[in-house]
Amino acid sequence: MCDQTFLAITFGPCDSCSENRPLMNLYIKTEPINYCSLCMEIMACQGLASGETLKSLKAESETLRKKLEEERKKLHDVELEKVAEKAEALGELNMKTRRTLKGHGNKVLCMDWCKDKRRIVSSSQDGKVIVWDAFTTNKEHAVTMPTTWVMACAYAPSGCAIACGGLDNKCSVYPLSLDKDENLAAKKKSVAMHTNYLSGCTFTNSDMQILTSSGDGTSALWDVESGQLLQSFHGHSADVLTLDLAPSETGNTFVSGGSDKKANVWDLRSGQNVQSFDTHDSDINCVKYYPSGDAFASASDDSTCRLFDLRADREVSIYSKDSIMFGAASVDFSLSGRLLFAGYNDYTINVWDVLKGTRVAILFGHENRVSSLRVSPDGTAFCSGSWDNTLRIWA
Amino acid sequence: MERVIVAMQDPDMGVKMRNQRLLITVIPHAMTGNDVIEWLIQKYNITEEEARHLGGLLVQYGYIYPLRDPRSLLLRSDDSPYRFQTPYFWTSSRWPASELDYAIYLAKKNIRKQGELVDYEKENYSILHKRINHTWDFVVMQAREQLRASKQRRKADRIVLECQEQAYWLINKPCVNMPLYYHYTTTIQLRYYYYTTIIHRRALGRNRVKSSICLESFMKYSEQYLHHDPIMSGCLPSNPWISDDTAHWTINTDMVGTPTRLRVERWSFSFMELLNDSMGRREFMIYLEKEFSAENLCFWVACEDLRHGESSKIILKVEEVYKNFLAPGAARWVNIDSKTMERTLEGIKRPHRFIMDDAQMHIYFLMKKDSYPRYLKSELYKNMLAKAIVPQETKKSVFPFMRRQRHSSPSPAMVTQATEDDGKAKGAGPTGTSSTTNSQI
């Protein structure tokens, strides 16, 4: 028989903040009450100015949040499923692996397409960054980074350079030289400097500026030529894991997702956090804009993908299934925005109908987690990179 | 690990328990180290070495604690008595162990057995006393209350509880040398809630659009682009990835002689589509020249170049733009409203990347509302549409397994270099615009 415990229940709702946490006994006037460790600490400091301010601030934040929920509900007059009823049902999707790119010695962590619709840059855990012509499956350039876990890589819009970074906390830009014998690493240019790992990077509309996101909770905009910091974006309370630039007309915003379960929309010019969405239950691994720029989709460790509308300022659809229990690592839209491709940690890729919210197909083929997924610039195919060291092109 | 422990404690199939004598009091439900190891061997069919290793881990993680020599976290395969730790004290359920708890525990021990704290415990006690001094009253009060409550229990139970607590803290004592842990968390919290309050307030002030309107727009967009989506509707003549034929890409290159019908249709979807396609932009420019309003597009292109170009060239570019488009009597003077013009001219005195944004926006919307719709109705566009080709779908080859040879294409890096050399040879390009930032692919 196990020891009995005379102390309180181990886990449950705290008497003070009502959140489910591990509990401890607190004696107030000889009565034992159950508090979670945080409230216990606050209680211990009662009388101290900061303790009181914290409590009142927390309460104010809660009331505002409830008010915000109400406001959002007022304008929500119809669900996406209802509107999508008149959309045509999709026929059967017949996608197969058309190319398999083998050559990485370790897990593929990230990939990006070139604007010429056939070249790809991919980065892996062993520090290698390879530029492929995916159509012929030839490797065109290979760079070995001085760091392992290269978690972010991007192709420049002109096709003349690549950017990559990871555990070295930096983002480096390599101009792609045509001379096969030239050592690419020699021309490396360090652009971004963060205080924690680099989780994502992308070029803005030209080769001259890079937007990066980092594990230190910030995102930043850098000038490539001088390496100068142009703007930084603070607001996530945990690691920022992903970012995407808006395709909209004025092209001035981007969205980032982080471990604090929030997706934030930022203004590039002012550095302000314009909108925030926090309906996910776990880390957001990937965010991507809808082709029109009016919405974005996110993939999270809570095994769901969600669609958030920027004009209605709310979540409009959830793509999930009981049989999917593993987190989603990466998402991207097809060219028309009707299909959403999502790569999961259970080695599969699920294809969702964005409007109707149903799953259209499930694609098997990878032998380990799918870590990144991108649709080609002209929408003819998409590429998925996985921890099984390969990349696959599906069409 | 916890599953193993629970199985062990099963009254029928678990480890044999006996009452053990420890000094004077009898401790119920104890077992010997030997029993534990034997049970593990039997249940999991493992060797003695492995059982010892597993048992050792169980002790190190705090699920079983020794009674006779509590500070040594080893599983001895002899008569030494052990007990199971109550789930309340399992590491998994009480994480993280906070400094406050530890302080209360040490205070209790101090009160109970004056001067019986071990060296490192005395050290930790004084460090904590210094650090969380402001809460010391609270700590002492809690310690006293807990002792008082425990006095109301039976002696045997009390001893059990003491053993449990001691075992727990042996394993889980927090690192007291970490700097100002408590203050760190409050400041972080304060900042976080303050920040979220601002965000929520700002969000409340936003203008929101009705869901029905937003969702309809998604429907329309998907429908409009349905035939342009190769994955959904296939592409002509064939998808290069499936048929290994790059014809689709060749007929859609930037500077091809005759564009495809789909491409020209796309220009009518939105103004941005027209501008994003370099051929569309070129056609639009030709149209505007006929209308004598080409300076608008040139101005817009120059502003884009300023926004996305090198930081070092900003001042130079701003001057150029002013000279060509904004100065009174300029060669390509653009018609902006007086207010925006005033603001822009003011701003030019301190040039930065976004100084032309207002003016650029004004011109953009001017083109979008006026020139663009007229272009779509013009002869120029209609002719383009009529000329546009609709490629034939490639006939499926007779031998479907024969793979066509895949040819590589010139790297974009090479193409850009070649045109740069050309540009230098030819001298100055068209006025007002720099062509290197245009996409070459």
UniProtKB/TrEMBL annotation, chain A:
Keywords: Coiled coil, Repeat, Transducer, WD repeat. The keyword Repeat applies. Residues 54-88 form a coiled coil. InterPro entries: G-protein_beta_1-5 (IPR016346), WD40/YVTN_repeat-like_dom_sf (IPR015943), WD40_G-protein_beta-like (IPR001632), WD40_PAC1 (IPR020472), WD40_repeat_CS (IPR019775), WD40_repeat_dom_sf (IPR036322), WD40_rpt (IPR001680). GO terms for biological process: signal transduction. Signal peptide: none annotated. Transmembrane segments: none annotated. PROSITE patterns: WD_REPEATS_1 (PS00678), WD_REPEATS_2 (PS50082), WD_REPEATS_REGION (PS50294). WD repeats lie at residues 101-142, 191-232, 233-276, 277-318, 330-362, 363-395. Pfam families: WD40_Gbeta (PF25391). The keyword Coiled coil applies. Belongs to the WD repeat G protein beta family. PANTHER family: GUANINE NUCLEOTIDE-BINDING PROTEIN BETA G PROTEIN BETA. May interact with RGS9; this interaction stabilizes both proteins and increases RGS9 GTPase-activating protein (GAP) activity, hence accelerating the deactivation of D(2) dopamine receptor-mediated signaling. This is G protein subunit beta 5. It comes from Oncorhynchus kisutch (Coho salmon). The lineage of its organism: Eukaryota, Metazoa, Chordata, Craniata, Vertebrata. The gene is GNB5.
From TrEMBL, chain B:
GO terms for molecular function: GTPase activator activity. Pfam families: DEP, G-gamma, RGS, RGS_DHEX. It comes from the Eukaryota. One of its GO terms (biological process) is intracellular signal transduction. The keyword Plastid does not apply. Residues 270-385 form the RGS domain. GO terms for cellular component: cytoplasm; neuron projection; plasma membrane. Residues 11-86 form the DEP domain. This is Regulator of G protein signaling 11. The lineage of its organism: Eukaryota, Metazoa, Chordata, Craniata, Vertebrata.
